[in-house]
Specification:
- Helix 1 packs across helix 8 and helix 3 crosses helix 8.
- The chain is α/β, with parallel strands linked by helices and 268 residues long.
- The protein contains 8 helices and 7 strands.
Length: 268
């Protein structure tokens, strides 16, 4: 488990055209109220009954927000030259605020990690005295081989615990990003489940899979398939940070800025 803060000044450096197009494409991979929900019923719904979607409100953040970024090895910074070159750390510059980074390699909603337990137990252990304005819950693909049984219940319990611990914070769910292509069935199921469960709560959901953040064209530029074992390289983490910042900016209508890995090992 890694915790760090990195307040920095915002660097307005323009934005590449592709990133602008990604932001404008239906407000990225967030839940779309005009799109049909996945067919699986959410926890607590009758079998065959779809989730009752709640439209999210626009994201409102202070000028210099504090953001808790909670997730797996991608949040930890795995395969970056040093972990603090991970996307969660770089995000601080892009939002002109600070990030509190809590990533555990191999961890998921059901699966314990290499350096700590599963998401629910980790949330219970978070410092209740911190006051994040925004919480980003990232991933995780680590549950892709755990099966469907108990998954939605684990997600619901973890999200309930996070919301209860930090009732003043806004929570945004950042879905799993593909560590390999084509996207595996288990990873696609996770993305669909998280999207529907977030929609039922009225929470924003950002889907790197739906928005094709990682494609066949850029895969080898972003993902270290050798030493990094299908995790983002430092360049890949920078790319992710820019896309996450762009997604948040799209949700709150702020300007976009630019910053200056199925089957892999458990270190996901």
């Amino acid at each position: 488990m890694t915790a760090a803060s990195a307040p920095r000044r915002l660097r307005l450096a323009g934005v590449v055209a592709a990133l602008v197009l990604a932001v404008g494409a239906g407000v990225l991979g967030v839940w779309r109220p005009w799109a049909p929900l996945p067919s699986a019923a959410p926890v607590g719904a009758a079998e065959g009954e779809p989730a009752a979607a709640v439209a999210p409100v626009p994201l409102a953040l202070p000028e210099h927000p504090t953001v808790l970024v909670f997730g797996d090895s991608w949040t930890y910074g795995s395969a970056a030259t040093i972990p603090t070159e991970g996307y969660a750390y770089l995000l601080a510059d892009l939002i002109d605020g600070e990030t509190i980074v809590n990533g555990v390699r191999g961890s998921g909603y059901l699966k314990p990690g290499l350096d700590g337990p599963a998401f629910g137990v980790r949330i219970d252990a978070l410092d209740p005295t911190i006051t994040p304005d925004l919480i980003i819950v990232q991933g995780s693909i680590n549950d892709r081989e755990q099966g469907e049984a108990g998954y939605r219940e684990a997600v619901t319990a973890a999200w309930d615990a996070m919301a209860a611990k930090y009732p003043e914070a806004t929570i945004v769910i950042l879905g799993p990003a593909p560590h390999e292509l084509p996207v595996g069935a288990g990873t696609a199921r996770i993305d669909s489940d998280l999207s529907e469960l977030a929609a039922a709560r009225g929470w924003w959901y950002i889907s790197p899979i739906a928005e094709d953040w990682i494609t066949e064209q850029n895969y080898l530029d972003l993902i270290d398939v050798e030493i990094g074992r299908k995790h983002p390289s430092s360049a890949g983490h920078r790319y992710l940070a820019e896309h996450v910042a762009a997604a948040l900016d799209a949700l709150r209508g702020a300007p976009v800025t630019v910053a200056g890995g199925s089957e892999t090992t458990p270190e996901q």
